[in-house]
Fold each of these.
Amino acid sequence: MNINDIVKTLDGTLVAGGESDRTVGTVVANDLMSDVLLNDGDDILLLTSLASDQAIRTANIVGAMCVVVHNAKPLPQTMCQVADTLGIPLVSSPLSKYESCVRIHDFLKAESGS
Amino acid sequence: MEYKPTILSGGESRSDDQIMAAHERRHVRRVSGPGLPGSDGQGEPLVIMELLQRLRVKDVMRDHDIISVVRTDTMHFAQNLMKRNHISGVPVVEGKRLFGIVSINDIIMALEGGWIGDPCQKHMATNLVVLEEDMPLAFALKYFENYIFGRFPVLNKERDLVGIVSQRDVTRVLMRELTNELARLEGGAPTPGAAGEQPKSEGALPYYSMRQFVIVRNDLQNAGKAANEIKKMLGEAGVEKKIIRRIAVAAYELEINICIHSLGGSITFILDGHKATVIAKDKGPGIKDVEWALRDGTSTANDWIRSMGFGAGMGLSNSKRVADFFDIKSTVPTGTTVLCEFNLPEKA
């Protein structure tokens, strides 16, 4: 699952951070950044409702491949700037975090053929 | 971070590894460290602190025309050598191996005692304090401050004598580098010259580097910048990704902690080749119950902090989890200092 797949699956829009050819290794859905930092997975897709610079900075610390913010929350300009600076794709989705989790799960299940 | 002074001792029969003289041991005080975060680095300008970490002993030492004697030379010969060259001590050397030192005090005692014609090996000092060529200059300054000696022999990793460093050498290079740094800060000038460059051969870690970041209370807009900068430095140094992540997590958690829980403070990052150290130091109010604060899920964060995605009470425990060594000291109301160390394996 790459950035294009994420955008399409979550009815989202890539708003900052640019394109990337990385693929999803681990999915983390969380609004508490310390919980995100606990995760040891690689190529994390971070699904969150936290529309702040810190979501991007946290994503950068754990080497996340993409951040998705839900419920069509307005994204602060500084958040987009940080995403551009750190090169982390930032996607805005109108879906709830729960709905995103379900769709991502279904996609990955289909992708793995199980 | 504490750097133990190298003091080698023993008589001639054990003197294969020996080096420069610490013959007046009663004057020797303990060297406590480089004058950096562990001690009182907070009051020193950052540019000087960085310079003292970036420059190494080998950048300032004299590595050619080292005036020395051999063990069979007489004390009288050493006396004349010192007189001719206006120096207060000479190392006793065979090949590259340092056996001892004859100082001006040894000469005076030899004149008084009537053994000025004896070979140096009989009266040279064999309790030796030395510097290592890859030590940061900060350590050398601490040695000069803590010992009475005006110069120190410098050894390489093979324990060979590779130079001598005096206070005059340090002053000369420091003046030059400070001038360069000032020119650079004022704009346009090149970064420091060869003496200040990191030993950054391909794929190798720089031996010593240090950065300090000021963290402002409640400035969540900028919180995390230090950790991201540290992560970038580690990436440029070629550190393994998994280790970078652990260090960055600790730095980030501690940075956020200072920002949301304290009156402000600093994050200091030190990379010394085989170890990375993150030191978080704040100005208060301190933690009443450190054990409680270290438990997962315990936090004094308010709703505003939680709305920003923090305050889950995982910061300290997360930092402890990822570090190879963790220590915390806190005093109410003075403040809290957290130390996280990470071992860096040698690259193949």
Amino acid sequence: MSARNFYIDPSRCIGCQSCVQACSECDTHRGQSMINFDFIDRPESIGSAAYVCFHCEDPTCAEVCPADAIKKGIDGIVQSALDPRCIGCSNCVIACPFGIPKMKVAQEQMMKCDMCYDRTSADLKPMCATVCPSQALTFATPEEIARTRREVPTNVFYFGDQKVVTKVMMMVPADVEAMSVDVVDYMWEPQS
Amino acid sequence: MAKAPGTPAELLERFGPHLNATPSGGWQYEAQHGPDRLVKTHCCFCGQQCGIQLKVKDNTVIGFEPWEEFPFNKGMLCPKGVKRYLQSGHPDRLLDPLMRTDAGFQTATWDDALAFTARRLRELQDRHGKDAVAVYGGASLTTEKSYLLGKFARVGLGTRHIDYNGRLCMVSAGTAYKPAFGVDRSPIPWSEIPKAHVLLVVGANIGECAPITTSYIWQCRDNGGKLIVVDPRMTPITRNADLYLPVRPGTDLVLLMGMLNVILREGLEDRAFIEEHTVGFDAVAADALTYDLRDVAERTGVPAEAIERAARMFATADRAIAMHARGLEHHSKGVENCSALINLCLATGHLGRDGCGPTMITGQGNGQGGREHGQKCDQLPGQRSISDPEGRAHVAKVWGITPDEIPQAGYSAVEIMEAIHRGEIKGLLSICFNPLVSLPDAGYTREALEKLEFFGVIDFFLSETACHADVVLAGSLQEEEEGVVCSAEGRVIHIQQAVTPPGRAKLDSQIICDLAKHLGKQQYFPYSHPREIFDELREASRGGVADYYGITYERIDKEMGVFWPCPSLDHPGTPRLFEGGRSMHPDGKSRFLPTPWRESGDPVAEDFPLYLTTGRVVSHYLSGTQTRRIGALVDQYPEPLIEMHPRLAAEHGIVAGDWVTVTTRRTAITLQVSLLKTIRPDTVFVPYHWPGGRSANQLTHRTIDPRSKIPEFKVSACRVAKASAPPATGAR
């Protein structure tokens, strides 16, 4: 296993989609990109963000799969749905808190980022993190990240009551330990 | 009469642009068969010149692998670099020479095509004089090809008219740097950028046009550096700017003088540096002091407080870098704009030490190298002035002719097209240039092309311009011929021959040498390999400003590039210029140069109240000849959109998805709107990569900077109106 980890920092993203284009050049799924890319709200902002699968410790996608088609390897990588098992029900697509899995309708199979296991197993960086011109997607050691970045990594997320711990790290401002993405957590409400 | 033969539909059917979306052999071919070899070379597109490894199978490029060891980009690539390999095996590729007949373009033998080309050029010269023919080059050519083309024009044809598409790129920068510092090159390698405490980025859409530079800017921020962005649009890097100045198009000079005014009034200038290392401060200072900050705010549309803050940040930083690109340079006062930025650096002592200096971000692949060795109308190899007797004598000796045989300076790119239009130039040979899309005022360019008595083109695809040719000589892609280029940093790097040209297509250098032979000038063009051309250009550049004598292909490979000047084989090269504040002028001093204000050549008025500015998007490159043929890049940005602020749109009843007609003093085109709050409400933006009814350059004007001869692409007066329907021909 690599000593390097995957870090996402959307604040560095310039929307060039090099990751999208490069992902579609990866051998295991050449011709199809597994990157989740968005211009957040182009009319309002230049903000953009590119995501790969977060590779959760307890993957929600696998938990909700009725066909037991989604497997996590000992390397912590959550794989695309196994072709012979996947029934194309899209439970994983709906359940993933990060919105990562994509249903490939034509082939009736869920596919998603597999962290370039063909590359990482050969101690190469994943393709997207190699080409990314802004290094919004980075594959590096924790020491390199600590030495070179002003933001700090976290891999703990709360979605309502669900706590999700991930293999992939998200860069956040230095004073944030875990990031909630539920507005309710930021609201004041009278105690009843 | 060089009208395009056949209907547009016929030409489109036969020559494209068609989209190549999948690699040769299909998506699974490489996984199943594997490449024969990996070739370490560089991207064919912009001036970043990222290292890349091309996967080659059966003389075709079938994919790529990042090249992480190359120090500039460390494996990083933009989407163009990722998909560039799809030019290989492209269905539109020209495999034979073409000759125009009454029945359209017909394939021809090389002998016929070359003999006809040589005969027509000679006939025109015999009848109308040597200067009746002109040569167009391009900054995507290797330095060997650029050098060869310059020699071909002056020795093979004996015409003084040779210029290149770099004239549309960054010549204003070079024209400002040369008198200021005695040299035309970025003063710093990119490794200096993370060392700066303040980065001032003026008119440079780095995220889209020099994407890899983003990583250097973010490293600077990680180190605690502050980022100031000056641009009428919030470009992608603005998302992390500490200060954003939304300058009104065409008023950069006023803004920079306003900053200098603040610096001088507050005593923030570096008196010791000015005394020791510069000449000409007093006149520039006196001019700056005439600028009133409230007036500056009114003219630029930037709050006075923001200008003050920018000035203080820049002046008080121990280390500051001022970066600029086409946004500062594409103006009829582009040279003054660049000089004003240089003056700011000189006044604050930001030169010749860690993390300091003005820095031009050269745009084209060989934008730097292509302008150093002789395809510029006023320069000989080694960045020598063509009017310098010593330089002429040196180059004439290398070429085996007398100095008097070298013609004097000729017309620049826009001036050549104007001379064609008025009938003074009657024949044109063009390579690596698509002026019908890239020159301003495309309608005028078309008229001029149709007046040519002979037009020969060397190209690998039939560009929109090449449709007007009498002869098209099927040339080579970047990966088909070995050579060197010089990146934006000033790093000379090695382009490898990964594959040989398909069909009967030939190496560009061979075509030029063969043409020289048909002109009876073969003794001056005896080359059998690009290396022989390189060795001659090393000698020709020797002792010049851009001295390449100490650079060899082997050294480049071993050292991952060599920065010029490099005058001897044991010289380490010069990554950073002006050490200790010494310029390359004989006295070592840098020059403050005056920057008088001039109005734009196409000023806004009551009937044309808005500013049109043009530029690039990340997935396309220049005139689009290459990128409009690559499926994934077209999918990413399929059609030109007109960017407009919702406030402006509301004034005209325009809503999302509407078609909008934009009209300038030339003509009108209709495009779909992209509503966004990241552009000034008095400005609209259209990217220029498309031809015909989608061509932004139908709208632009031919005013050029009097010294650099760069067109004013960044300011055209326009008006907008909601269109009732898409254009009749459809967007395509």
